[in-house]
Inverse folding.
């Protein structure tokens, strides 16, 4: 019974930790499937985290914060697209430039506007954050742990963005594999010349993919600052953008395997939090450093041995030049 | 650009060398990552600097570190410009202080939370284990479930010191109570990860804890938020954080960095400043637990009585609080 309770709680934490990873990984999936490397996930998320917290603090509305977060992330996505698609610049360099700019600019703006050392004010007013939504009878269901606790912890009690992320994966799979737009998007990442020959604009498709990526990163960043915590702090994305990229590669650029990879990383993270200081049978207490490194060790092991070859979209990273 | 001023400065130095007046006193302070408004450690230091400024009318030169390479640069710059004393806030600044203090043996330095053995450096440390002990007692007395939590920031000896004192305080009240201990990480990023902090707190709540103490800088903001969201109790750190979530913050392990900064400036000005190590604990009012209008309702009179009794016993040496020694 105790083990059951423990597992349910770890799974609930997994869902919370996985949400920004899923959003960012799916954002990267659209962009990379169109042939544009999306190293800018981290910077776009951080910009959104800052913009949403700043606007939510100033206006008192989480929804306006979400709008600002999406707008900030979208603007950066368009900057990267302008450099890489229109002007055929190096995609890695442009994206890293954005990451570095945001890492410095967000705390600088926060310092100038709020004068609290590069943070935004604490969000604690009603409506400033996305809070968990309790489903009907969730409290009552806890009295019958099987399956009530699972219902109360896993299905109920999350905020809107978590449910959005959950719905996003099947929706993306449908768009990618069942619609004309999805077919063209996949084609442009594999063989842009063929798409061009068919009379479809390569640049337009890549811009559309960048816009989708910008919007989703905006939602992910908003989740980090206004749902998972209450306000912006310097470097608060803490590498989640790169982790999402790893999950995307691990998931071979497909929606469901990518979701599985995100959940695995999040599970390792949530599990690690609970393993600290707990004596394991036969081993004793494992040093905290090893436990904190566990998700990364797992990543390296899995990427090295277990997933098989991950084949990237063929045209990824190559700017498309129309034949003259 | 500076050249025309140098003869003037030399002239001033020549005339004023014997009788240093208040106008010559020029203190400087270097804050660590997090900045002077981190609502915690650095902010406490800035309160001390502000108090000195207000009481004496003497300007204090301040600098907030943005990246690690700036530490030595700014300290050299302050030293070159004739700062009377340079206070470096935070354990990560110790090596920079050591380098620059050797280069400028005539300039006074003070490092807070670090240890630098040089004839012109004062090293100020706190007995954090003593305030953590009191917070552990408060946690154990307030807990209804018999389990409490601790969330540390970066896994360093200083934070282990907090954890050990806290455990001892919990055990002093109720030896059977369980303490869950989590560290956020092993890099400086562990100080600025509130979402991980709130995840760690939630995992401890899930295991039955109903009071959680953080020693995690800005990560702790997430810890306290999680406690407030869940309707449970948290304990603040370094600055008095009771006001952040009134009714949910049981107390704070206050570290009077402000007193340390103010004292260093005042002594340096009066000429009574001495180099060497100095350790501030409960007896010196260097650390304490907080009690104000925001947590008045949470700390019952019996709790207050026991806490004050323990405080007196620690000062008198009747209770010995274990101190973490790095292996």
């Amino acid at each position: 019974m105790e083990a059951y309770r423990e597992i349910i709680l770890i799974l609930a934490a997994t869902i919370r930790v996985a949400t920004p990873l899923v959003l960012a990984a799916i954002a990267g999936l659209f962009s990379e499937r169109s042939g544009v490397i999306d190293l800018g996930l981290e910077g776009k998320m951080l910009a959104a985290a800052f913009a949403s917290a700043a606007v939510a603090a100033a206006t008192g509305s989480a929804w306006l914060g979400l709008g600002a977060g999406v707008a900030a992330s979208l603007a950066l996505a368009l900057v990267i697209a302008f450099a890489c698609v229109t002007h055929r610049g190096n995609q890695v360099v442009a994206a890293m430039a954005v990451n570095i700019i945001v890492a410095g600019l967000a705390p600088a703006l926060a310092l100038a506007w709020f004068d609290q050392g590069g943070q935004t004010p604490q969000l604690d007013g009603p409506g400033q954050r996305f809070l968990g939504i309790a489903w009907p009878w969730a409290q009552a269901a806890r009295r019958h742990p099987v399956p009530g606790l699972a219902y109360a912890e896993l299905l109920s009690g999350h905020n809107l963005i978590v449910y959005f992320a959950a719905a996003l994966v099947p929706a993306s799979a449908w768009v990618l594999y069942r619609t004309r737009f999805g077919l063209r998007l996949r084609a442009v990442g594999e063989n842009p010349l063929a798409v061009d020959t068919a009379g479809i604009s390569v640049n337009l498709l890549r811009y559309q993919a960048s816009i989708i990526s910008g919007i989703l990163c905006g939602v992910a960043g908003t989740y980090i600052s206004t749902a998972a915590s209450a306000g912006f702090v310097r470097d608060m994305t803490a590498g989640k953008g790169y982790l999402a990229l790893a999950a995307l590669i691990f998931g071979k650029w497909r929606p469901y395997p990518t979701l599985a990879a995100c959940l695995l990383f999040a599970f390792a993270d949530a599990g690690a939090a609970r393993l600290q200081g707990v004596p394991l049978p036969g081993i004793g207490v494992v040093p905290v450093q090893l436990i904190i490194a566990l998700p990364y060790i797992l990543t390296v092991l899995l990427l090295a041995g277990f997933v098989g070859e991950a084949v990237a979209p063929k045209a990824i990273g190559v700017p498309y030049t129309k034949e003259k | 650009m500076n050249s025309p001023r140098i003869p003037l400065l030399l002239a001033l130095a020549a005339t004023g060398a014997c009788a240093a007046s208040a106008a010559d006193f020029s203190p400087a302070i270097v804050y660590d990552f997090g900045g002077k408004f981190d609502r915690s450690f650095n902010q406490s230091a800035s309160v001390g600097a502000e108090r000195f400024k207000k009481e004496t009318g003497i300007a204090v030169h301040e600098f907030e570190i943005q990246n690690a390479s700036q530490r030595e640069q700014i300290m050299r710059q302050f030293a070159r410009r004739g700062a009377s004393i340079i206070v470096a806030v935070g354990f990560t600044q110790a090596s920079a202080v050591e380098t620059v203090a050797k280069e400028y043996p005539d300039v006074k330095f003070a490092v807070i939370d670090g240890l630098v053995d040089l004839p012109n450096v004062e090293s100020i440390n706190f007995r954090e284990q003593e305030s953590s002990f009191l917070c552990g007692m408060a946690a154990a007395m307030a807990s209804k479930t018999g389990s409490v939590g601790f969330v540390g920031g970066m896994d360093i000896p200083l934070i282990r010191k907090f954890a050990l004192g806290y455990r001892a305080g919990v055990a002093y009240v109720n030896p059977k109570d369980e303490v869950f201990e989590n560290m956020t990480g092993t890099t400086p990023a562990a100080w600025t990860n509130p979402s991980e902090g709130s995840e760690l707190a939630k995992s401890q709540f899930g295991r039955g804890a109903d009071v959680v103490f953080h020693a995690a800088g800005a990560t702790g903001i997430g810890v306290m938020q999680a406690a407030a969201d869940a309707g449970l109790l948290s304990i603040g750190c370094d600055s008095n954080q009771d006001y952040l979530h009134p009714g949910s913050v049981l107390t704070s392990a206050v570290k009077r960095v402000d007193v340390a900064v103010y004292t260093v400036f005042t002594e340096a000005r009066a000429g009574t400043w001495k180099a060497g190590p100095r350790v501030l604990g409960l007896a010196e009012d260097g650390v304490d637990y907080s009690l104000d209008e925001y947590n008045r309702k949470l700390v019952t009179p019996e709790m207050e009585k026991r806490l004050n009794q323990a405080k007196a016993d620690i000062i008198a040496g009747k209770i010995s609080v274990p101190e973490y020694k790095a292996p």
